[in-house]
């Protein structure tokens, strides 16, 4: 039985109930659009009058709009509701080498994308990102920009509002939130890349009904995002899920974190390129080229990716033993060849189960190139679609200063 602390609680108010109901209706519209008020009442269990009041409020706030008119055998023809696709989110996928800045609507459809070489320090990055964001806002004058979501290859400490661990960027702890908010006048939300991919899977993929989901991202490094009991697990200082920097061999190759033999030095894209060179083959210009070589049957490329897949699977055993998720979802360019390498990973995972059935192992619903961006979209939207969103917060978002920033 869970122990309750009755000395540190807050009494629920009518505003709390309205906020919960608002979140329920907004999420139902998002998932089932276009949908009529009558169907919203039936599915939610709310009174039709309550649904109508909430719908009118959401229309005034420009979150939803009227859609097509339905057809019935008799009686009044219902008018369907849907999300307002003029509501937009600016997203940034910060990665070593190349960063992507994009515009997406509330349905997760991307309207524009631009790649920028990642600067060598956070101050320069902040200035470049701000300039590109302002350019995108100016080029989409018909959109209502709701905020900026940023996926970072590191861990974001919400209590300090700083990225505190980003070894593959080779940057010291830094703050992107405050400089970008000051430069753009919009709210900025940051999240670790693996956690962003969890949000993408839950919001836009197949993980909506899953209570325990773990996402493993494989790129320059290896990241893990944990969704447990219906919640994203962040841990102390936002550091939960750093399995990529658990050492598997203390005498192994050096890692960007300063340690040796970490999981990511065996399972990352860089590891596969190292395996390819160790086989005696000529230097490979990049991981995409390695995949192309494997697809045409190059033995050295296939061997290197096989070693990578086995290393991914062996490291995933830590997740199975420590977290026991229902599903393990993989994000990364290597999933383009999932039919070849997925069974290797699944076999390694199945061999680590101590009791019961192994977790389901699959690639992410989103393409590797968009998973982090979609997660950044969800990062901003969840602040509005969640049941705890207060009226006061929404007023602040619609303040004159923020409205001016959206023009």
3D structure, described in words:
The protein is α/β, with parallel strands linked by helices and 407 residues long. It folds into 3 domains: 14-83, Orthogonal Bundle (Arc Repressor Mutant, subunit A), CATH 1.10.10.10; 87-198 and 370-406, ATPase, nucleotide binding domain (Nucleotidyltransferase, domain 5), CATH 3.30.420.40; 206-363, Nucleotidyltransferase, domain 5. It is built from 14 helices and 15 strands. The protein has a 5-stranded mixed beta sheet with strand order 6-5-4-7-10, with helices on both faces. Strands 13-12-11-14-15 form a 5-stranded mixed beta sheet, with helices on both faces. Strands 1-3-2 form a 3-stranded antiparallel beta sheet. A hairpin with a 4-residue loop joins strand 4 (87-93) and strand 5.
Write the layout of secondary structure elements.
Elements: H1 14-32, E1 35-36, H2 37-44, H3 48-60, E2 64-69, E3 79-83, E4 87-93, E5 98-105, E6 110-117, H4 122-138, E7 144-152, E8 155-157, E9 162-165, H5 177-184, E10 188-192, H6 193-204, E11 213-218, E12 222-228, E13 231-233, H7 264-267, H8 269-278, H9 287-295, H10 299-322, E14 327-331, H11 338-350, E15 360-363, H12 371-385, H13 391-397, H14 400-406
Parallel strand pairs: 4-7, 7-10, 11-14, 14-15
Antiparallel strand pairs: 1-3, 2-3, 4-5, 5-6, 8-9, 11-12, 12-13
Helix pairs in contact: 1-3, 2-3, 4-5, 6-12, 8-10, 9-10, 10-11
């Amino acid at each position: 039985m869970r122990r309750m602390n009755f000395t540190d609680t807050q009494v629920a108010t009518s505003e709390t109930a309205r906020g919960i109901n608002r979140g329920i209706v907004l999420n139902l519209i998002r998932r089932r659009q276009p949908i009529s008020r009558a169907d919203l009442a039936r599915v939610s269990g709310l009174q039709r009058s309550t649904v109508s009041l909430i719908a009118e409020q959401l229309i005034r706030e420009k979150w939803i709009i009227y859609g097509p008119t339905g057809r019935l055998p008799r009686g009044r023809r219902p008018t369907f509701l849907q999300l307002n696709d003029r509501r937009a989110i600016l997203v940034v996928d910060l990665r070593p080498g190349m960063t992507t800045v994009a515009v997406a609507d509330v349905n997760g459809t991307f309207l524009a994308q631009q790649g920028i070489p990642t600067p060598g320090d956070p101050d320069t990055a902040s200035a470049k990102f701000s300039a590109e964001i302002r350019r995108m806002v100016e080029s989409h004058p018909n959109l209502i920009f709701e905020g900026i979501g940023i996926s970072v290859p590191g861990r974001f400490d919400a209590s300090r509002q700083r990225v505190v661990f980003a070894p593959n960027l080779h940057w010291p702890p830094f703050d992107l939130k405050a400089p970008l908010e000051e430069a753009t006048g919009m709210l900025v939300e940051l999240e670790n890349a693996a956690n962003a991919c969890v949000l993408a899977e839950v919001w836009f993929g197949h993980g909506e009904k899953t209570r325990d989901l773990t996402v493993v991202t494989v790129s320059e490094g290896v990241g893990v995002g944990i969704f447990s009991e219906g919640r994203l697990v962040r841990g102390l200082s936002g550091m939960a899920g750093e399995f990529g920097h658990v050492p598997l061999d203390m005498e192994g190759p050096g890692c960007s974190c300063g340690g040796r033999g970490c999981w990511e030095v065996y399972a990352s894209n860089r590891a596969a390129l190292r395996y390819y060179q160790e086989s005696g083959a000529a230097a490979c210009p990049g991981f995409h080229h390695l995949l192309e070589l494997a697809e045409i049957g190059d033995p050295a490329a296939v061997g290197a990716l096989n070693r990578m897949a086995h290393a991914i699977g062996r490291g995933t055993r830590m997740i199975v033993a420590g977290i026991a998720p229902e599903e393990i979802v993989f994000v990364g360019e290597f999933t383009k060849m999932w039919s070849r390498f997925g069974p290797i990973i699944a076999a390694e995972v199945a061999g680590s189960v101590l009791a019961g059935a192994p977790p389901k192992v699959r690639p992410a619903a989103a393409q590797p190139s968009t998973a982090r961006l979609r997660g950044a979209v969800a990062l901003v939207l969840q602040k509005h679609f969640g049941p705890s969103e207060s009226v006061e917060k929404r007023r602040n978002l619609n303040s004159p200063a923020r409205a001016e920033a959206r023009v």
